[in-house]
Amino acid sequence: MSGTIKLEVCESSADVALKASEIIASLIRATPDAAIGLATGSTPEQTYARLADLHRGEGLRFARVTSFNLDEYWGLDGDHNQSYRYFMDDRLFRKIDIRPWNTHVLNGTAANPDLECRAFETKILAAGGIDLWLLGIGTNGHIAFNEPGSPVDSRTRLVNLAPSTIAANSDGRFFKDAASVPRFALSAGIGTIREARRLLLLATGSGKADAIAQALEGPPSTDCPASLLQSHPDCTFIVDREAASRLESA
Ligand code: PGA
Q: Is 41 close to ligand 1, i.e. is its CB under 6 Å away?
């Protein structure tokens, strides 16, 4: 089947989270031992809050789920409050019954980054591949920390953060200033991400409108890494009205 990205436009970011959490919950109900890929950043926070609610209120179980996160800042250990390990523990893992040893977040202080990245890929293979990977998108079109120019077949590796990413993450939501943002990260590659059986990319707010238009309606190009998802056989973007505002088709 040749891929075309499916698009769902929601009225609000709350509706994006509702839809995304329902898709993830349905997957876990049908496949209790699912391997799910996760993302960090502002965008998935409401989705994680909703999944935690489903666990508390409706008994959605994560005990057999395995998770893999997209990326981690290089140089931050898991106790640092801006590390993605900390983020995941704080926003989701501690609120559900996922087993800590089944949660895989790259180690930003590994002695050998290449070994760490290779081990991550091996663990994905050992889990039988990823059933669904939840993604965000950067204002520059990046997915994970695959900045513009990243090859379509890239694997998990140590990468440089683009200046636009450093600026976006130092606006006070996460880091207080640009000087505090790490310059490097470990990131799953575009090739790694594209091997997931299903992809679900979320975007909210007008800041993402150009990137979403480029990803969906531009030519597939490494200039906009998310556009390289166009040929994936099962990829859905769930966006709010603001993030859809530059689309010709919406
Ligand atoms: P955000 O980040 O959810 O904080 O906007 C998304 C990304 O940079 O991929």
A: yes
